[in-house]
């Protein structure tokens, strides 16, 4: 049976500003499980990731610049040693965590949306957000017009939610063009097959409205110019006709 164990240490920070008080939740989250990814370690503040341990680069990766320069005691070796103990005791930890962490195979809720208002030809970022799933083993992939996209793609670690389920983001830098269709493909063991979520850029109303106004204005000016031209032509013919009669 597959097992996932979360070990969290929570620190409540109380900050007073004048007469107001702000409570912040800080957590050290250590994840070990018997499927890929088999380990993860990060620090979260108010359910946002502050930094995480990159086990390939063997260093901390900071998500919030304010914490730049922060280092974990023992570094990557110390964190890996702690996770190794977790893996060794995975069966026992699983029994102790029953009723606390979610049951396996909870499907993700997925949404796809742009970061900024869409403008043709202007660089933007498309976001695919998967939330509420368990365990932390979810693959995300971008496609444009049914073709796999790898350039301009970024994917986050797994973020723990308050109910101990997970969320994950993937970002795609793109330039909106008419006719393009984007797909976020999500694979999780709770799904019988990969789920696909489509997004296509729509013509912004502001751009459409401006084009309509300019077009209508151009037609109106053209009609007015034609009428003025006809009037001037008629008057000129009348003037010439009067001159001929006087001769």
From TrEMBL:
Residues 108-197 form the Ig-like domain. The keyword Iron-sulfur does not apply. SMART domains: IGc1, MHC_II_alpha. The chain crosses the membrane at residues 210-234. The keyword ATP-binding does not apply. Keywords: Adaptive immunity, Disulfide bond, Glycoprotein, Immunity, Membrane, MHC II, Signal, Transmembrane, Transmembrane helix. It is a single-pass type I membrane protein. One of its GO terms (cellular component) is MHC class II protein complex. Pfam families: C1-set, MHC_II_alpha. GO terms for biological process: adaptive immune response; antigen processing and presentation of peptide or polysaccharide antigen via MHC class II. CDD domains: IgC1_MHC_II_alpha. Residues 1-19 form the signal peptide. It comes from the Eukaryota. Its main location: membrane. Gene3D superfamilies: Class II Histocompatibility Antigen, M Beta Chain, Chain B, domain 1 (3.10.320.10), Immunoglobulins (2.60.40.10). It is found in: Membrane. Belongs to the MHC class II family. This is MHC class II protein alpha chain. It comes from Callorhinchus milii (Ghost shark). The lineage of its organism: Eukaryota, Metazoa, Chordata, Craniata, Vertebrata.
